[in-house]
Amino acid sequence: MPEPVPDDFVETWIDRYARGRADNTAMNFAIEDAGDGTFLGVALAPHIEPEEHTAELGYVLSSAARGRGVATEALRQLTAWAFEEQGLIRLQLLISVSNDASKRVAQRCGYQLEGVLRGMYVKQDMREDTESWSRLVSDT
């Protein structure tokens, strides 16, 4: 999420994923509590390359959803969707080097650390190192 959040962020985000759904280059899913339907976050494929059979995946959770296994289950389901329904071969996660919780989720879901992309992510005019994690359909 950008910080600070631009005034038009919601509209821009909705438009981007609507276009992505139409041309199969991006997808987003709501994460809801199975019991009461409470919104817990989103599971994303912000970049899909259909011809290359690759995608970047991710997720964002509400603070109330953290520490409950929600991210792990969301990534498991998103990974299954990408491999089984989209026919993708390679999936990638980009995780901040300081986000230990997301790294544990990646490991639980069978992703492997590939390396660190130095200064890749820019947030609030500061550069941050990002880890690249991947999973291949052949890993399953």
Task: Give a description of the structure.
This protein has 140 residues and is α+β, with helices and mostly antiparallel strands. The protein has one domain: Gcn5-related N-acetyltransferase (GNAT) (Aminopeptidase). It contains 3 helices and 6 strands, in the order αβββαβαββ. The protein has a 6-stranded mixed β-sheet with strand order 1-2-3-4-6-5. The longest helix is centred in the middle third of the chain and has 16 residues, at 70-85. The protein is globular.
Spell the H/E element sequence.
HEEEHEHEE
Rg, nearest Å: 15 Å
Fourth-tier CATH superfamily name: Gcn5-related N-acetyltransferase (GNAT)
Largest sheet: number of strands, sense, barrel closure: 6 strands, mixed
Give the integer mean of the pLDDT values: 92
Counting DSSP H or I runs of 4 or more residues, the number of helices is 3
Number of domains: 1
Shape: globular
Strand content: 35-45%
Which CATH-level-2 architecture? 3-Layer(aba) Sandwich
